Amino acid sequence: MKKVLILINDAPYGTEKAYNALRLAMQIQKDYEGTDVCIFLMADAVTCALPNQNTPNGYYNIERMLKAVLLKKGKVKLCGSCADARGIKELKLVEGAELSTMKELTQLTMESDKMITF
Questions:
Q1: Which of 115, 40, 39, 109 is nearest to 73 (CA)?
Q2: Which residues, given as ranges, of the chain have pLDDT below 50?
Q3: Reduced to 3 states, what is the DSSP secondary structure of residue 5?
Q4: Which residue in 29, 70, 104, 114 is deepest, having the highest Cβ count within 10 Å?
Q5: CATH of domain 3-117
Q6: Domain boundaries, the chain
Q7: Looking at residue 39, what is its pLDDT?
Q8: Threshold 0.90, pTM exceeds
Q9: What are the residues whose beta carbons fall under 8 Å from the beta carbon of 82, sequence distance 6 or more?
Q10: Pick from 1, 60, 67, 81: which is nearest to 39 by CA?
Q11: Are strands 36-41 and 97-100 parallel, antiparallel or unpaired?
């Protein structure tokens, strides 16, 4: 089974990086069934996993996109220290998203066939 790790660094809204990363993840899951897709959220991207955000007019809904990835057995991990630095470590996350560590990111990176950064 191929493993793809997608690293996102930007906030959910304001740029299209999170949107494009999740579009790619969803397309990989659609076109290459059985591929293990993991989304790793770092820096301001950890806020992508906060549920019930009001989507700005003209923008896509990142929560719905994360749920679509999770629904197809993808993983969504958040950098724990990044979440802590932004004061969201104790907040409720999109169901299925999990706090993680640099140690786990290192392991995911070494085990992945491809790593893509946004």
A1: 39
A2: none
A3: strand
A4: 29
A5: 3.40.1260.10
A6: 3-117
A7: 98
A8: yes
A9: 41, 42, 43, 45, 46
A10: 67
A11: unpaired
Predicted local confidence at residue 59, as pLDDT? 81
Q: How far is residue 52's CA from residue 36's CA, in Å, rounded to a whole number?
A: 27
| Angstrom distance (rounded) from CA 112 to CA 95 | 24
SS (H, E, C) 24-77: HHHHHHHHCCCCEEEEEECHHHHHHHCCCCCCCCCCCCHHHHHHHHHHCCCEEE
CA distance 78 to 32: 24
pLDDT of residue 17: 97
